[in-house]
Amino acid sequence: MSKKAKLISAFFLLIPLILVACARSASKAPTVTPTGQKPANTPVVTSMSMMAQWGTETAIGEQTRTAQGLPPLATMTPIAETSTSTPLVPPTGAPTNTLLPGVTPIVTVAPLVKPASYTLQSGEYPYCIARRYNVNPQDLLDLNGLISNQVYPAGTVLRIPSTGTFPGTRALHPHPATYTVLVNDNIYKVACYFGDVDPAAIAANNSLVAPYVLTTGRVLNIP
User: Which CATH number applies to 114-168?
Assistant: First the structure.
């Protein structure tokens, strides 16, 4: 091959290389990211984006609660904080010892103890005393040398039998109840009217003090 032909061949081989080099120089230089700055394609987290993300997570949570049969969080009422301590002083105007309508307070007195002797009071009689202390009335009469169907005055001292019980029902009228005082009534006569009621209990339940004067028409609480 002649020298001229070799030069022409070399020229044609160089043409592609020259074209490639020109294409590289014409391409855009890569962008260098300054130190401390985020690339342009990195999303910036803002308060708005955080709220949008929170709203999405909340919606997903609500859908999950609905699927589980639970009420939505938006409809739930916060539980108020309560205190387990009890105030020592009741609030102003609070009722104290309020009783239900028709209920009569009963004052507890010492149990009735059978005495060795008893002095009759006005309105009392031996049979009444036998009922009150749960003794046999005939034993009571025999022990004191008395006979039935006799009226014995107030001040008569009766010895009380230590044995025996009253035959039958001791109560003459149901109680607890109320009783309206009649003329010449006293707590002893009222106690005998009910049979097995202690006069001291009547006094205690009606705030009576000696000499236990009753006024006609007064309503008594009978225990």
Answer: 3.10.350.10
